[in-house]
Write a structure and sequence with these properties.
about 80 residues, mainly alpha
Amino acid sequence: MIGFFVYVPVMFSGVMSLDLTSKKAVGTAAGFVGFFGYVGRVIQGKGLGWISQHYGWNAALWSVVACTVMAMALLACLWNVRPRG
């Protein structure tokens, strides 16, 4: 169950970014998605560790909830985006 709820959204974000670009820019789009995925993992690991060390686990978990809500709001802006011809 955990793998389904983690891997599927990650896969769909990559597929969606490739679907919304032109055929000439697919490699660039895949590179950007991969790059920001790895950068996000580094920032998340260091940032969550710093928050939990300085403010405790309660603040760390609330920061995860806040980031989740912000991500949902940003993804909601892409709800009706359609690929260009």
